[in-house]
Amino acid sequence: MTSPTPAETPIKSIVIASDHAGYRYKRRIIEYLTKEGYQVEDMGTDSTESVDYPDFIMPAARAVAEGKYTRGIVLGGSGNGEAIAANRIKGVRCAVCWNEKSARLASMHNNANMISIGERMVSLHDVYEIIDIWLSTPFEGGRHARRIEKLDE
Fold it and tell me: What is the pTM of this model?
């Protein structure tokens, strides 16, 4: 079984979640994606008040794994903890993305169904580019599909 490419699974809906350190970018990303025609579901947090990121990230990742959303975006200060939390959920492939190349490879080689972005690490301008590239780059399949299958075993 190979993981479907974005062309085979149209991106219909995106779930987004953050901790307090990613909250400001999360609000801006929701506005951006909504203007671009995506259905976006916000799973929290709702302020910059300190919270524990697994409380918001893991439910978003479960929703992607269960097929409720086609893709997911999670945010924090660095994005590392959020990616770790999301990747604890079977069926999630969450890549930390910090530039256009990391976003492109996350789609091409890893068929990432989620990405994690660090608000303290990336400019807001670059965040929009990262998201656009991740959403539009097709999965190459082939040897990469075989590797993803091994992860899912």
Answer: 0.92
